[in-house]
Amino acid sequence: MTALLVGIFGVAGALLRFAVDSWFAHRPGRRPHWPWATLTVNVTGSFIIGLSIGLSGRLELGADWHTVIATGLAGGLTTFSSWTTATVRLLSEARYRAAALNVAANLVLGLAAAALGLRLAG
What we know:
With 122 residues, the chain is an all-alpha fold. The protein has five helices and no strands. Helix 4 (80-92) runs antiparallel to helix 5 (96-121). The longest helix has 26 residues, at 96-121.
């Protein structure tokens, strides 16, 4: 049953990621492109996992529900590969500051979001 729920929640996370990607892709914005959608889903996923860890223990939901939320929902939502690829693309375009900002923003905001999720659940 857990595997089925991970799959269902994974589909939900992937569809949510698609929606975020689509929203950012269709917004009129300044060029050159910066990976806002990837940052958004990664920070959101970090928050979801932090919240899940805290709530699983506090509400005694157990490891299965944490797995469903973290691996399924957040796993389908977040993307390490898009983050790294976007960073490499920025570097190949000689946009070194943008690449450094992309790395720092995903790391710092992701850590802050995970900590916030844990704190709110506690």
